[in-house]
Design a protein that fits this description.
The protein has 396 residues and is of the alpha+beta class. The protein contains eleven helices and five strands. The protein has a five-stranded mixed sheet, with helices on one face. The chain starts with a helix and ends in a 10-residue tail after the last strand.
């Protein structure tokens, strides 16, 4: 809470630099004049020096070098007339610090040297001191300190600015990478959809050929073949409508697609996947609830990819070489639950990684839902894919 309040105060201060300089100049002049009054009565030249010092301090950040030149001349003139004019000496040190913090090291060294030499000479002449008077050491110390602190402040601000620039660039790169991964996943979904559509078109082509061959001699068989054609076209249209919204994006120049008519992978290949994972060292406790039934091709493919992505993440990021897989066939669709012992948080296991972005894209492409998260040392992927009986594929 204290850090938050401090950040708010710092933000307000940095957003009104001119007001801060005015308040700072007024404070410095007031404190010095009160200190002078404690030793002797204030004279007209004290108020004049105070007003001039206030104006120069208030304007120092807007015009660093001109203000430094003005305060050097004024301080020299006043100190030659009456040595150790407090407000102008303070303004001289403050303006030297400002130049050192806002320019390069060479200019800072030059301005520091000018400050020390002019004040030193003016005080020696004005106060009647000797050149080697020990009291003059304070002039050298204050002038050197103003340059050193100003240069350190400049370096610190430059480092902070560089860190902020790198942070913005890193954030921009992460955003670009996330968008690129999403586009790549959409293109992969498009290619998978192409495979599904190509498969059904091939089936339609075969059934139409059968119907044309049997139309005259066996009309009943031809009618059955045409029924399969009608069902296949309905399936293709349904799958196209569910994926169309996901595939709409600004990047429409997709890569050339494969013309194969082989169906894409589905849960029928689940056993092969589990065998491959077991060979790689991941033990999967697989259980199935409900009676398995044919699923729409897009849903079947999405289920396969979800299981594949989840178990792959379990193998890569889990703290134990074991995972649990539950498939629950319900009248409304298919529930998928994958659990594994959570390891060290990784980009793909904290709920916002690129792998889970692709997984959510795939689930949304079939109108499903997915929830991921870490709880009690375990990472869970809980997905539901709608697959009502009226959307199932009819065997062809």
């Amino acid at each position: 809470m204290a850090d938050y309040q401090l950040s708010r105060i710092r933000g307000r201060v940095t957003s009104h630099p001119q007001a801060v300089d005015v308040a700072f100049g007024l404070l410095v002049v007031t404190v010095i004049l009160l200190a002078v009054r404690a030793g002797r009565p204030l004279r007209a030249e004290d108020f004049l020096a105070g007003a001039l010092a206030f104006a120069l301090i208030a304007a120092r950040r807007r015009w660093p070098l001109p203000v430094f030149a003005a305060v050097t001349v004024a301080s020299t003139a006043f100190n030659l007339h009456a040595a150790l004019v407090g407000p102008l000496l303070a303004a001289n040190v403050i303006c030297t610090y400002t130049v050192a913090s806002r320019t390069d090291r060479r200019i800072a060294a030059v301005t520091g040297t000018i400050t020390v030499v002019t004040v030193y000479v003016a005080v020696v002449i004005g106060a009647g001191r000797t050149w080697l008077d020990p009291q003059n050491a304070a002039i050298v110390v204050w002038g050197t300190l103003a340059v050193v602190v100003g240069d350190a402040t400049r370096i610190r601000l430059a480092n902070l600015e560089a860190v902020e620039i790198r942070a913005r660039q890193a954030e921009h790169s992460r955003d670009e990478e996330a968008r690129r991964r999403v586009v790549e996943e959409r293109l992969r979904i498009a290619r998978d959809l192409h495979d599904v559509v190509a498969h059904h078109i091939a089936v339609i082509n075969v059934q139409v050929g059968v119907a044309a061959h049997l139309l005259r001699e066996q009309p009943d068989d031809a009618e059955e073949a045409l029924a399969h054609v009608r069902q296949a076209t309905r399936t293709v249209l349904a799958e196209l409508s569910t994926v169309l919204d996901v595939l709409r994006s600004e990047d429409r120049d997709a890569e050339g697609t494969d013309s194969t008519t082989e169906p894409p992978p589905g849960l029928s290949r689940l056993a092969s996947m589990l065998d491959a994972l077991a060979a790689a060292g991941l033990r999967v406790d697989h259980r199935q609830e409900g009676e398995a039934r044919p699923l729409p091709s897009v849903v079947d493919l999405a289920a396969y990819r979800i299981v594949q992505e989840s178990l792959t993440n379990a193998h890569k990021h889990g703290s134990e070489p074991a995972a649990r897989l539950r498939l629950d066939y319900t009248p409304a669709g298919l529930k998928i639950l994958v659990e594994n012992a959570a390891g060290r948080p990784e980009p793909d296991t904290d709920g916002c990684g690129h792998g889970l972005i692709g997984l959510r894209e795939r689930v949304s492409s079939v109108g499903g839902s997915v929830h991921t998260g870490r709880d009690a040392g375990r990472f869970t992927v809980d997905a539901f894919l709608p697959a009502a009986p009226d959307r199932q594929d009819t065997p062809t």
